[in-house]
Specification:
about 160 residues, mainly alpha, 5 helices, CPA3_antiporter_subunitC
Length: about 160
């Protein structure tokens, strides 16, 4: 099996560019990254399918009356997987566009902001004050009183 080097390089460029765009704070850039990555995966499917051949749906006899065997027939599975990936990419694109549109409506920006609760948990983890579990020991009455109060001293 010979591999088309141009398609392999194209798939690598598409996937690498998609990863770079996916790391951006902008939802539109992240969407473009997902689209580039999905197109790169589709190219990989086509490269992995092997050399092109005849159509996978053939009759028992060719036009000249000779029986056609399985030699030279292309594999239909990669083509079906690419079509499925295209449909899934369309659904993900529609969902990401809806998220970006709603974000633009709410804050007139499509940038993803830091979550304050996530920042607080990160700071607690840095100071080594994160509890191992959220569940208190029910046999110890003092543990129940301590579990009812969080780190700021507020009752839950």
């Amino acid at each position: 099996m010979t591999v088309n080097l141009t398609l392999v390089v194209l798939a690598g460029i598409l996937f690498g560019s998609g990863v770079v765009l996916l790391m951006a704070r902008s939802l539109v850039r992240a969407l473009l990254g997902v689209l580039l990555m999905s197109n790169g995966v589709n190219v990989v499917f086509l490269v992995a399918s092997g050399a092109p051949g005849r159509a996978p749906i053939v009759g028992k006899a060719s036009a000249d009356g000779v029986t056609v065997g399985a030699d030279g027939i292309s594999d239909p599975l990669p083509q079906a997987m690419v079509l499925t990936a295209i449909v899934i990419t369309l659904a993900v694109t529609a969902y990401c566009l809806a998220l970006a549109h709603r974000s633009w409506q709410l804050s007139s920006s499509d940038n993803v902001e830091d979550d304050p609760e996530d920042t607080r948990i990160g700071q607690l983890a840095d100071s080594d004050r994160v509890p191992d579990t959220d569940y208190a020991d029910t046999t110890d009455p003092h543990a129940l009183a301590d579990a009812a109060t969080d780190d700021r001293g507020d009752h839950r």
